[in-house]
Description:
The structure holds two protein chains of two kinds. Chain A has helices at 16-32, 81-89, 107-119; strands at 47-48, 52-53, 59-63, 69-71, 74-75, 96-101, 123-130. Chain A is of the alpha/beta class.
Amino acid sequence: MIKRKRRRRMPMVPIASMGDIAFLxxxxxxxxxxxxxxxxxxxxxxxxxxxxxxxxxVISVTMDEQGxxxxxxxxxxxxxxxxxxxxxxxxxxxxxxxxxxxxxxxxAQYMPVMEAIxxxxxxxxxxxxxN
Amino acid sequence: MAxxxxxxxxxxxNMGPFADIAFLxxxxxxxxxxxxxPMGRRIEMPASSESQSTEEKKTLTxxxxxxxxxxxxxxxxxxxxxxxxxxxxxxxxxxxEKKEEDRMVVVKTGKGVPYRQFFKVMTAVSRAGGMATxxxxxxxxxxxxx
Lengths: 131, 146
């Protein structure tokens, strides 16, 4: 009896569609992540032993080492801050702001910002670092 | 004359490494986005219009000065404390268990106080369960005159 050697067929997995799925997933994650609006802001964060890990809030207020105030990465003045915060918060149930202020700024610079936030009725996440 | 037919090879792109690169990019983005978690403290502040007069009640007051922190219930009992002592004193008061009006802590900020000092006081108050009400030194002086 002649044994016929059957050539073993390697099972073929179509890889082309795998690339499509991978790119769709990348696009999904890119669209769902938010861009860092404060990447280039020079700021020395204050230190405290009482800080903990926080969830990033949607709206950010920053004041860098030169005292420049920014709301969502855009430069603003303190006078219109309360109204801007109220319009940004809109009908959000969670009225939370993320506040990053340079550690060396003095009362005259940061207190108007605090007052504007308090007047807008928002809760703030004061950002710093652990000692 | 014999006509030569050249055998043209179909150019093929090997898709295998392509998918590998794509998956590596996905994993990179997933890991990079989850690493950025800011550290801080949630501060609850009652709106200024809702704050009651602090003259009648002996409310807890923290006077933040550029190089010192003073803590007490009235002007006579204010004493200088460090950040650790302030946290300890506030935690002894068990503010978390009290009603909203008893959780109020007046934070009086003097002129020229660096933000790092203010931040330490605010985070200590928040951690102890207090609700900070801000008062600037000029306002305090006007209040005393009235």
